[in-house]
């Protein structure tokens, strides 16, 4: 009886140590890489979660990449050219909008939406989405992707 009790105590101690080590590894290694959960109801108007985008629009999306040219050249979306357009703040922005406007106008006829994204740290996606909304001729929803490039990478749409 005493040997059984001792073995149960040892096994319990080993399990506690293992749980502590796994909890520590999760906190140190995995949590920093985990994306926070996106709750659509808590987002301001004009922003969209990837999950909501997937259910509402089912890949009927025209993407606008608002990241810097360097980021764009480093990694990109794995989509056909007619589904993704780079539009960046700066002197060439109007030319980029002009190059994409035909396809952006077609989005309404195709039942698509327009989603603008950049990296988590940049604000260019908000500015470009506002610019596209102000054009007044786009009769489609224009959203900013919550979480930006990092969410696209996690979804498998982006090549890194």
Structure description:
There is one protein chain. The protein has about 160 residues and is α/β, with parallel strands linked by helices. It has two domains: about 1-35; about 40-160, 3-Layer(aba) Sandwich (Oxidized Rhodanese, domain 1), CATH 3.40.250. Helix content is about 50%, strand content about 15%. It has six helices and seven strands. The protein has helices at about 1-30, 50-55, 70-75, 95-110, 125-135, 150-155; strands at about 45-50, 60-65, 75, 85, 115, 140-145, 160. The strands form two sheets. Strands 1-6-5-2-4 form a five-stranded parallel sheet, with helices on both faces. A two-stranded antiparallel sheet has the order 3-7. Helix 5 links the parallel strand 5 and strand 6. The radius of gyration is 23 Å and the shape is elongated.
Task: Name the descriptors.
160 residues; alpha/beta; Oxidized Rhodanese, domain 1; two-stranded antiparallel sheet; elongated
Please outline the major beta sheet: 5 strands, parallel
Helix content: 40-55%
What is the CA-CA span between the terminal residues?
59 Å
According to CATH, what is the class of the largest domain? Answer: Alpha Beta
Short synopsis of the structure:
With 160 residues, the chain is α/β, with parallel strands linked by helices. It has helices at residues 2-30, 50-57, 69-74, 93-109, 124-134, 148-155, and strands at residues 47-48, 61-65, 76-77, 84-86, 113-117, 142-145, 158-159. Helix 5 (124-134) links the parallel strand 5 and strand 6.
Topology:
Blueprint: H1 2-30, E1 47-48, H2 50-57, E2 61-65, H3 69-74, E3 76-77, E4 84-86, H4 93-109, E5 113-117, H5 124-134, E6 142-145, H6 148-155, E7 158-159
Parallel strand pairs: 1-6, 2-4, 2-5, 5-6
Antiparallel strand pairs: 3-7
């Amino acid at each position: 009886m005493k040997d059984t009790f001792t073995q149960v105590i040892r096994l319990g101690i080993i399990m506690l140590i293992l749980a502590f080590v796994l909890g520590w590894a999760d906190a140190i290694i995995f949590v920093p890489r985990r994306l926070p959960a996106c709750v659509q109801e808590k987002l301001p108007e004009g922003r969209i979660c990837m999950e909501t985008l997937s259910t509402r629009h089912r890949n009927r999306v025209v993407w606008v990449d608002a990241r810097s040219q360097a980021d764009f050249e480093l990694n990109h979306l794995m989509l056909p050219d007619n589904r993704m357009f780079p539009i960046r703040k700066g002197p060439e922005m109007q030319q980029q909008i002009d190059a994409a406007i035909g396809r952006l106008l077609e989005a309404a006829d195709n039942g698509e939406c327009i989603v603008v994204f950049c990296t988590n740290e940049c604000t260019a996606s908000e500015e470009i989405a506002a610019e596209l909304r102000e054009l007044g001729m786009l009769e489609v929803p224009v959203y900013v992707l919550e979480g930006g490039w990092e969410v696209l990478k996690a979804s498998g749409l982006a090549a890194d």
